[in-house]
Design goal:
Layout (H helix, E strand, L loop, with lengths): L10 E9 L5 E5 L2 E5 L7 E9 L3 E11 L12 H4 L9 H18 L18 E2 L14 E9 L2 E7 L6 E3 L8 H16 L14 E8 L6 E7 L7 H11 L3 E8 L11 E7 L2 E6 L2 E6 L8 H15 L6 E5 L5 H7 L4 E6 L2 H13 L5 E5 L2 H10 L6 E4 L8 H10 L3 E6 L2 H13 L2 E9 L9 E8 L3
Parallel strand pairs: 3-5, 6-21, 11-12, 16-17, 16-19, 17-18, 19-20
Antiparallel strand pairs: 1-2, 1-4, 2-3, 4-5, 7-8, 7-10, 8-9, 10-11, 12-13, 14-15, 20-22, 21-22
The structure holds S-adenosyl-L-homocysteine.
Length: about 475
């Protein structure tokens, strides 16, 4: 492109000054920004420009000229091909620092909020952003694997899609998955190959086995295996079941989901139990949850407890409060809070999640929770009309953040405290600006690392009403 300080195909020396929300190094060449995959802040690198836009471009890493002290050799042998993790080349300590900094940068740039210790915090009253709460052992933390299956040299393979494509690469272990998940996938490959099962092909739409989904209860040790197939019958199903049970005694449930559509959505609508129970169980803290083939459950149970523990601390419950949990999912936070609250109201847009939430309340014998399906921005005003006056509102919205109507309702209701659990620092910053303008103060933020080695950042925020 004419007029830009760099040209496609040319090599330049770049100073890497930061890390993008996708995990690429943010490089500078003559004041121009180039995103360099694999480069780290503090490094100097020879890069080749691959793609240009008006304001920025993308470049490949040719050679590192100065190496960051935070650089480590990734433990995973397929790290470069897979794309599931983005930060394994950065030490875990540094990952936690980077994640905190991303939260800080978003609060300052998007939220225009003063952060303690950052430029702009003149009166020293800025928001305290704590160090990211990380894991003692940041490996093998995921309780759910969804593995696409294919064929190679007449046998079944299962693994992951090569970055940016739908070509399946066989995988023996994934270091962020619970060991049980690797083991189940290995056995299913072996048994399926022995029984002559064909894998589904996205191109032709033929073949049977599409995905194997494995779930494991960390606390209970229970394992569920779901075979997702293109077609309603599994030939020699009895032999499958016997093979899986024999090899894997921890398996408590074997399910079959049927998905005959040509789509990359994993699950179809129909799920049958092939053997064992319909659900497995796990705990977050003292609260027990039933996990079915289709139900959503937080994928890092260890850090979920840390995250919700923070949310509970910020909710500062004394036992009698009325609490609303907007975006409640299967009621994980609601039930966690109900242990210390007077009455909890949970709302969630997905009907099945609400039905799971009700079952989970029953499972724990909790009677001080009420769940309703619908958009939070509609249901909360309805509850208000019915006389519900929350002392605390907890929000845990999807990446797009809170609906403006929900924020407006919060500002009308004026609860003492709001606890914001966020999986997107940019929409968090945007929403906090609205709450601050509406008469709320942000006391502190704790980032929590729910997904080590990936770029995802979660944060819990303590927000309180400022009475004038
Ligand atoms: N706290 C939950 C998960 C929250 S994820 C847990 O830990 O299990 C965000 C949830 O918000 C999702 O379940 C999504 O279905 C729901 N959601 C999205 N838009 C919504 C809306 N407008 N109103 C209520 N819930 C919504």
């Amino acid at each position: 492109m004419a007029g830009l300080p760099v040209q496609i195909g040319q090599q330049y020396e770049a100073e890497i000054i930061g890390i993008s929300h996708d995990g690429e190094g943010v490089g500078r060449v003559n004041g121009f920004t180039l995103f360099v995959a694999g480069a780290l802040p503090g490094e100097r690198a020879l890069v080749r420009v691959e793609h240009l836009k008006k304001q920025y471009g993308y470049a490949g890493l040719v050679e590192l000229l100065a190496v960051s002290p935070d650089r480590v050799v990734p433990d995973c042998v397929i790290y470069d091909e897979c794309g599931g993790c983005q930060l394994q080349h950065l030490s875990y300590e540094a990952q936690l620092r980077v994640k905190r900094q991303q939260v800080v940068d978003n609060l300052v740039r998007i939220g225009k909020l003063a952060v303690a210790g950052e430029p702009g915090d003149n009166q020293g009253q800025g928001i305290i952003v704590h160090p990211t709460l990380g894991m003692g052992d940041p490996w093998r933390y995921r309780n759910k694997a969804q593995v696409p299956f294919g064929e190679e040299r007449g046998g079944l393979i299962g693994g992951f899609y090569a970055q940016g494509s739908h070509r399946i690469i066989d995988m023996e272990e994934c270091l962020i998955q619970h060991e049980a998940n690797d083991e189940v996938v290995a056995r299913v490959k072996e048994i399926g190959s022995r029984l002559g099962i064909r894998a589904y092909s996205e191109e032709t739409g033929s073949g049977l086995l599409r995905h194997v989904v494995v779930k494991v209860g960390f606390r209970t040790g229970e394992v569920m295996v779901v075979l997702v197939t293109n077609g309603s019958e599994i030939p020699r199903a009895d032999e499958w079941i016997a093979g899986i049970r024999e090899a894997l005694p921890a398996v408590k449930s074997i399910c079959h989901n049927i998905n005959v559509r040509q789509t990359n959505v994993i699950f179809g609508d129909e799920t049958r139990v092939l053997w064992g129970s319909e659900v497995i169980y796990d705990y977050i803290g003292e609260v027990k949850f039933a996990i079915s083939a289709r139900s959503f459950f937080q994928v890092n149970p260890v850090q979920t407890e840390v995250l919700y523990g923070k949310a509970l601390e910020y909710a500062a419950l004394t036992g009698g409060e009325t609490v609303v949990d907007a975006y409640c999912g299967i009621g994980t936070i609601s039930l966690f809070l109900a242990q210390r609250a007077g009455q909890v109201y949970g709302v969630e847009i997905v009907e099945e999640a609400i039905s799971d939430a009700r079952k989970n309340a029953e499972l724990n014998g909790m009677t001080n929770v009420h769940f309703e399906a619908g958009p939070a921005e509609v249901v909360l005003p309805e509850w208000t009309r019915q006389g519900v006056r929350p002392d605390v509102i907890v929000v845990d919205p999807p990446r797009k953040g809170c609906d403006p109507a929900l924020l407006a309702t919060i500002l009308e209701l004026r609860p003492q405290r709001v606890v914001y659990v966020s999986c997107s620092a940019s929409t968090l910053a945007r929403d906090l600006r609205v709450l601050v303008d509406g008469g709320y103060g942000v006391a502190e933020v704790t980032p929590v690392d729910m997904f080590p080695h990936t770029v995802h950042v979660e944060a819990v925020v303590s927000i309180h009403r400022v009475d004038k």
